[in-house]
From TrEMBL:
This is Acyl-CoA synthetase (AMP-forming)/AMP-acid ligase II. Residues 445-521 form the AMP-binding enzyme C-terminal domain. The lineage of its organism: Bacteria, Bacillati, Actinomycetota, Actinomycetes, Mycobacteriales. Keywords: Ligase. InterPro entries: AMP-bd_C, AMP-bd_C_sf, AMP-binding_CS, AMP-dep_synth/lig_dom, ANL_N_sf, ATP-dep_AMP-bd_enzyme. The keyword Ligase applies. PANTHER family: LONG-CHAIN-FATTY-ACID--COA LIGASE, NONRIBOSOMAL PEPTIDE SYNTHASE PES1 (EUROFUNG)-RELATED. Transmembrane segments: none annotated. SUPFAM superfamilies: Acetyl-CoA synthetase-like. It comes from Gordonia humi. GO terms for molecular function: acid-thiol ligase activity. Residues 9-380 form the AMP-dependent synthetase/ligase domain. It holds the Pfam family AMP-binding_C. The keyword DNA-binding does not apply.
Length: 534
């Protein structure tokens, strides 16, 4: 059968209605209550003319309404569009326009003001759903455009009956990914592919579920696991986790913002079992709080920290285990364009690899499979991959080619090679590869070494122009609170403990804060500017 995400959600609701689905800043909502709310929200969208294939932008921070909007839209077969709430007006205009969004859901006054400024440039937008009070700037803007303002609270007047049209699993789920450079791209998933890959067939701990009956049967026997999403819901990893644990009947813990201090303090209150982070950007402040609170906060319920979407260095993991040795650390390999590719392992030297799998292989530039060990190439994902990028046939053909045997693959620029025992070693993202005199240096590897320096809180590595070698390795870093600024010689000496000489940074610039997206993704464009010689 083909799975639809709303059908999966409703199946779990009917199986375990009294379980808690969401704990938001201390308030809990059962599966039954969330089904009622999301059904009312779905009817609200339908009443204003939104349904099959309509794109609706969610310009929201984490909230209960963010969750109900997301699920409400897929109930009526509409397509939620995730929006990075820290985008500039130019980036927001691009994503609203590129996504063909017909409506926008918004909350904060400053976000409403941004929408107000952009409405004259967005002829497709017919409705703005506002959570809370309407900002005067938005009221004034809609008076000059053929756009309605809808009070989001209107949903409470709607029915809780699931009188929706049948779903097929062919519906689309679009996930905009900003990556590290350029404007965001809309990754178009079919619901069925989304279920089978990003959310692991409804069961990341074993065999994929065969049908809705199996989901209903198994979820009753599966313990209610409580993961906390440290990333914002507009990030791919967060939405993957939301739907993964819904399929398992789990309890999602959500905070408004990423606040490492609150996350650790609230472990006893929420009985947090798993924390999902995005690499070192979240891992470093989190482990610092674990160290500060190890004697004052009961962390006994926490049994795992899981990362995805960015580099998670061995040094940060070791510090976490020093605080809580019995904890399981898991590093997921994946992307918006591929979903969950499985766990990536780290050896004693810090090399990252995945065990042999039918879901991944290494290919050359012409997409021919590489079978010889130690021959570098591109890591390709095989099987349930996205249909492509929204409205970009050229990039779609380049990223999601079809092999001669009919298999579809996803090639994202991750570089790697096979070992003798067929493990795939991850080298780094090709787009962040620095070519220094013919030697290739992958930024992530150097960043991991820098993160292990006792004085450095965060760091990004970028190419810096060099007359002799073309490019040299440059770094931009921030300091831990109270730490003295180390000299370049000291940083280089530290890096040489784990890196070959040609990979060691030749320059480093210290800044107050290393800029990243709200989801912890690197801002390499900013880093290149900050690292450039004056």
């Amino acid at each position: 059968m083909k799975f639809n995400l709303a059908d999966v959600f409703e199946t779990v609701v009917d199986a375990v209605p009294e379980r808690v689905l969401l704990s938001y800043e201390g308030t809990s909502y059962t599966y039954q209550r969330m089904d009622e709310l999301t059904t009312q929200v779905a009817h609200m969208f339908a009443a204003h003319g939104y349904g099959l294939d309509d794109h609706v932008a969610l310009f929201l921070k984490n909230s209960v309404e963010h969750v109900t909007s997301l699920i409400g839209l897929i109930k009526v077969r509409a397509v939620p569009i995730n929006v990075n709430y820290r985008y500039t007006d130019a980036e927001l205009e691009y994503i609203f326009d590129n996504s063909d969004s017909k409506a926008i859901v918004v909350e904060l006054p400053e976000h409403q003001q941004a929408v107000a400024r952009l409405l004259p440039k967005l002829p497709l937008v017919r409705s703005v759903f506002v959570i809370g009070d309407v900002d005067p700037a938005l009221t004034q803007a809609v008076e000059q455009a053929d756009v309605e303002i809808v009070d989001f609270a209107e949903h409470t007047q709607n029915s809780t009956e699931r009188d929706f049209e049948p779903r097929t699993g062919e519906e689309h789920y679009v996930l905009y990914t900003g990556g590290t450079t350029g404007y965001p791209k809309g990754v178009v998933w079919r619901h069925d592919d989304f279920f089978r890959k990003p959310i692991s067939g409804g069961n990341p701990y074993g065999d994929a579920r065969a049908d809705l009956d199996e989901i209903a049967r198994e979820v009753k026997n599966f313990p209610s696991i409580a993961p906390l999403v440290a990333a914002p819901l507009m990030h791919g990893a967060a939405s993957y986790l939301l739907f993964t644990f819904i399929a398992l009947g789990g309890r999602l813990i959500l905070e408004r913002d990423f606040d490492a201090k609150k996350i650790i303090e609230n472990i006893p209150r929420d009985q947090t079992q798993i924390i999902l982070i995005v690499g070192d950007a979240m891992g470093i402040p989190l482990v610092e709080e674990m160290e500060r609170q190890k004697d004052t906060t009961d962390m006994s319920s926490l049994f795992s920290v899981t990362s995805g979407g960015a580099i998670w260095s061995k040094h940060v993991r070791d510090r976490m285990l020093a605080v809580k040795p019995d904890m399981m650390l898991r590093d997921n390999f994946g992307a918006s364009e591929s979903g969950n590719d499985g766990e990536i392992m780290m050896d004693s030297d810090g090399n990252l690899s995945v065990p042999p799998t039918e879901k991944m292989m290494v290919v050359d530039e012409r997409f021919n499979q590489i079978t010889e060990p130690n021959e570098p190439g591109y890591i390709a994902r095989v099987g349930n991959v996205p249909l492509g990028y929204y409205k970009d046939e050229e990039k779609s053909a380049r990223t999601f080619p079809t092999l001669p045997d009919g298999r579809r693959i996803s090639v994202l620029g991750d570089m790697g090679y096979l070992t003798e025992d067929k493990h795939i070693v991850f080298q780094g993202r090709g787009s962040q590869c620095i070519n220094s005199g013919g030697e290739k240096v992958y930024a992530e590897e150097v960043e991991a070494a820098l993160h292990s320096h006792p004085a450095i809180s965060d760091a990004l590595v970028v190419p810096v122009p060099d007359e002799r070698y073309g490019q040299r390795v440059g770094a931009v870093a921030s300091l831990r609170e109270g730490a003295p600024e180390p000299s370049l010689d000291e940083v280089q000496e530290h890096c040489r403990e784990t890196l070959a000489g040609y990979k060691v940074p030749r320059s480093i610039v210290f800044v107050d804060e290393v800029k990243r997206t709200p989801a912890g993704k690197a801002d390499y464009k900013w880093a290149k500017s900050a690292a450039a010689p004056v």
